[in-house]
Description:
The chain is an all-alpha fold. It is about 65% helix and about 0% strand. It has helices at about 5-35, 45-50, 55, 65-70, 75-85, 105-125, 130-145, 150-155, 165-190, 195-200, 205-220, 230-240; strands at about 90-95, 100. Strands 1-2 form a two-stranded antiparallel ribbon. Helix 1 (about 5-35) crosses helix 11, helix 1 (about 5-35) packs parallel to helix 12 (about 230-240) and helix 2 (about 45-50) crosses helix 5.
Amino acid sequence: MADVAPDRYAPLVAPVIERLTLAVVNKAMARAAGTPAPHAAAPGAMRMLGQLRTTLLARSVTAAGLAAVYRYRDPNDVRRDVEGLLAAGLIDKQDDDAIQPTGTGRAVLTEMYKVSADVAGELWASQEGGLAGLSDLAGRLVHAALATGGPAYTAMAPPYEPAGAAAALLLHTRLSVLRYHRADAHAAAWQAAGLTSVTMRQLPAGPSRDAIEAETNRRAGLPYATLSPDERIMLLAGLAALPG
């Protein structure tokens, strides 16, 4: 029997979630690249808008949340992308520096959702019968992770879910935001070890990095404790079978 204790399960499912998320995102970006976009900003800024799409249609993103989501990027680059979206009329900035979409921005975000829905539906059409069950399990995890998520996760979750959304889109958006729970777990682990984002990237392989990874897995595994061992196996097997 495989050991699916939450702290051992978390590093097993994480690369599967990453693979499936990027499969949809990369195909959606390639498809959108061939579509004229009169309100588009620079490519970097549009990538930011696309990354934040799951939250901006539901709520504003605070300055602290934005900093957490992009904790490994140069703050000047993040600021440049925000300014690009402002200049293109796709977002507004509130008095507390939180950002929210304009009417034009909401229309662009809605179109992004439609493209993602089409791509996910096409990519996973061969496994359509199992998508509802997988999206339900992912939805339970998204809710459970709210109790232990850090600033990036609470900025991104729960994701916007349009009424009547197909199971493929729901699964994609839920998996997309679950990645930020692990990102916060990793950041909390290296912060507890007295490191910064820069020194963590420079940390060589060895006992110190192993300890941080173990603590990351402990923290990242907490939401998975809400699933039974059978449900964890079902989720991992189901996700692993999806193309992408």
